[in-house]
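Consortium newsletter contribution from the modelling node. Members have asked for a concrete example of what our holo predictions look like. Here is one, prepared for the zinc ion complex that several groups have been discussing at recent meetings.
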Amino acid sequence: MPTGYLYETHFHTAWSSACARSRGPEYLERYKRMGYSGIVVTDHFWRGNCAVDRHMSWPNFVEAFFRGYEETRAAGEQMGLSVFFGWEETFDGDDYLVYGLDKQWLLRHPEVRGFSRREQWEQTRLGGGCVVQAHPFRDRDYISAIHLNPIYTDGIEVANAGNTSENDTQAMRWAKKNGLYTTAGSDIHSAAQYEDAELMGIRFPQKLHTVQDFVEAIRSRSEHSLQVLEGRFDAPLTKPRKAVWEHGKTTRRVRDTSELFGSA
Ligand SMILES: [Zn+2]
Ligand SMILES: [Zn+2]
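And here is the predicted structure:
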């Protein structure tokens, strides 16, 4: 087994994500047995598949949204597993993992619900957090186009257990071409989902004691390795089947595969 400290970066609980099947504490025995040091809870936030009623007042929404994380953290403390808070926000089918902001920040920033991609990144950084684009090349029926965001993010989730190896290979090639920091996560939605070996994560040489340590590791592009199945990024490189848009200072359509992935 490789050395270092392994963290799950993409994790959903039934309290706060409408599509998740298990309460946070139900997952933890397995993560402990698999040698993880911690997990970050990233439930679907305001514009995603959130389980919390959006008609509540903002403070009540924030309180309720935190329950999935809070009960997971309480269970994690009992068994020596670090549990950190984050969320997953959705734009036009492109999803972002936002790490390192807390309840007080959310209460003070109700405008988070209307952020552009750029505002999300700038305001998260100002608040001491970071943003990672989740599964950028995911191809599903509900996704009408691929939206890439190499500028207003601190990293790219190049491996996602809910993806195909083909889409992860595209993500890895794109991240490499653009010099982007890489992460991996399971995007787990139920305690029984995936074979043990399919669980993903990111491994650092140093132990992370707080979510700020986690953010600092990503923002400083800390040395790391990815926990993924052997050969995960070795699928034949294919052209995305949907239109690809790249968001930056301007938004543009990318038609040329070599522009995305470089030459082989
Ligand atoms: Zn989900
Ligand atoms: Zn997710």
